[in-house]
Amino acid sequence: MTEPEQLTLVREHLRRSTPPVAPGPAAAQPVARVLVDIPLAHLDRPFDYLVKADQSDDARPGARVKVRFAGKEVDGFVLDRVDRSDHEGTLTPLRRVVSPEPVLTPEIARLCRQVAERYAGTTSDVLRLAVPKRHARVEREAAGEVADVAAPAQSGALAALTGGAEYLRHLGDGGAPRAVWAACPGVPWTDVLVDAAAATLVGGRSALLVVPDVRDVHRLVAALAASGLGELTVGLTADLGPAPRYRAFLGALRGMARIVVGTRAAVFAPVRRLGLVAVWDDGDDLLAEPRAPYPHAREVLALRAHLEQVALLVGGYARTAEGAALVESGWAQSLEPTRDAVRTGAPRIHVTGETEVARLPAQAFEAARDGLKSGPVLVQVPRGGYLPALACVRCRLPARCGHCHGPLALGRGHRTAACGWCGRAAVRWRCENCEADRFRAPVVGSQRTAEELGRAFPAVPVVSSAGGRVKDTVPDRPALVVSTPGAEPVADGVYAAALILDSWLALTRPGLRTPEESLRRWFNAAALVRPAEAGGRVVVVGDPGVPSLQALVRWDPVGAAERELADRASAHLPPAARLAVVSGPSDAVAGLLPSLELPPGAEVLGPLPVERDADGEVSRAVVRVPRDRGAALSVALKHAQATRSAHKQPHLRMQVDPVELG
């Protein structure tokens, strides 16, 4: 072996035997403040980590990183880079930078913190709702260019509302007007949102439009495309799948999309140069997040409008008490159609009393028969299934399972009732109260209704839209369309008539928002019917003296919302007050309440047992305070949750201003 070869071998041996020199800290801003993805409430704060020199370019604010925490490698987001840390010990370095893409913008990070404070949750829980999981292949795709599209001509739907022209002018000038909008019957609600988005684009800004479900997203995206804004629009929904959803998210983040349309999770979309946030049909319970900390899309958008000083538009055919409260406080203005516009666009609405002889009174039968001469007829029923509830034929008490005491129901084509909880067939059933052995059906579902209408109109096709079989559209030809609330298909033309059956059942549902929710469902169904001038009719089977039905006949969503708000205020219920529901093991709830540092004027209701699970009895307590002390209530709840987390005590479910009190 020659001498040069020997030297080469020695150098290679030394290179392999000498451990590599770890890179030093970054030359500039070597400290990263990282929000670690951990669910523990007492650790809901940023932690400082050392940025190494080879990580400095990628560990930018908003980037995803991996860090060492409590002996485990966990995910996190870089919130900021600073020169020094307040921590006195040696900082742990970042394990690695997952991606340099700044997916968490400063505006969204601040919004997530504020939402966590508002709903007494943790920031990491909110971030799981705000930032979708990474898709590396999509992230490597080159960013596209923003299409240069001229602002389209507006339909005039928004300008026709009282106060609408001023709102549009303020929006186009780059202002931040806030409004609650009552949609006009006969005018597509999509036209109003398209007009608002177009005015926002004229001012050089972007728009975020949130709707309850995917069908609404498709309708709004189609309307934007028809107006010439399709190339600037992106849809953001959970059903897209990982890759398309992340691509849409990056389109908003990188500025390729100027208009983002999505469902409730889209409230956190990182839209560049945001100028308008809007939500349609804000009373729909699909806009309430079922995961902790249970935020509502309307409240998040209102908070975002305040934090980023952008315009807000809250709309629906019905108006919620929360919307009425925004107007009453002066924080938002009211946009309403004129009475002439309502008379021109609304169908003729009748309320007919119920009869023991037939479920379909003569007036409803006549409206369906006349409507079928020229188009489809919508039939709205409050419950799906066949016979979803049974009662004793003699004493009228609900029929219950003899094994688990669950409700009995009868499915289509079944001869024997079965339990809705355990599934056992009710063979040789007898009433526990009167020993009767036969049932009656106080509630008729959509399947049974379709069967009955098929017999009443044998030559007419019957279309069902409910449950897992929801139809998007129906042809513009005679047909009976039986639907549950929220599943109504859109007719290719318009419905000739609509029947709203069993209104009493919708009003007997227990809950804080029952009258408001019932009226919202009825308004949405009636808005699908052609105007009265074209022969459109809506017949509601119910008590004409019910205030909600009277508001429907007058088409007065604003007055109904104002009365609902007044009733809530007199009962000290949201939105006139701030309210929190605490539920969990009975002993834990009872032990928590005395330790809460509640603000003055707080009132504690309960705790009361609500159910029993495998771990024991579950109780619920309600805490309410005046609205101006709601922030103090959230702080008290968040502090209590952090204390329990630090002491490894059982987690309690805390919901601030829930949609339903349970």
Description:
This protein is of the alpha/beta class and 662 residues long. The protein has four domains: 23-102, no CATH class; 164-341, P-loop containing nucleotide triphosphate hydrolases (Rossmann fold), CATH 3.40.50.300; 346-568, Rossmann fold (3-Layer(aba) Sandwich); 577-656, Alpha-Beta Plaits (2-Layer Sandwich), CATH 3.30.70. Helix content is 30%, strand content 22%. The protein has 19 helices and 28 strands. The strands form seven sheets. The protein has a seven-stranded parallel β-sheet with strand order 8-9-7-10-11-6-12, sandwiched between helices. The chain has a six-stranded parallel β-sheet with strand order 13-24-23-14-21-19, with helices on both faces. It has a five-stranded antiparallel β-sheet with strand order 2-1-4-3-5, with no helix packed on it. Strand 8, helix 8 (242-253) and strand 9 (259-262) form a beta-alpha-beta unit. It is globular, with a radius of gyration of 29 Å. The termini are far apart.
Number of self-contained structural domains: 4
- Give the proportion of residues in helices: 25-40%
Largest sheet: 7 strands, parallel
* Sheet with most strands: strand arrangement: 8-9-7-10-11-6-12
CATH topology of the largest domain: Rossmann fold
Category from helices, strands and their pairing: alpha/beta
Determine and state the CATH class of the largest domain. Alpha Beta
* The CATH homology group name of the largest domain: P-loop containing nucleotide triphosphate hydrolases
Give the radius of gyration.
Answer: 29 Å
Under the CATH scheme, the architecture of the largest domain is 3-Layer(aba) Sandwich
Which regions contain 5 or more consecutive residues with pLDDT less than 50? none
DSSP strand content: 15-25%
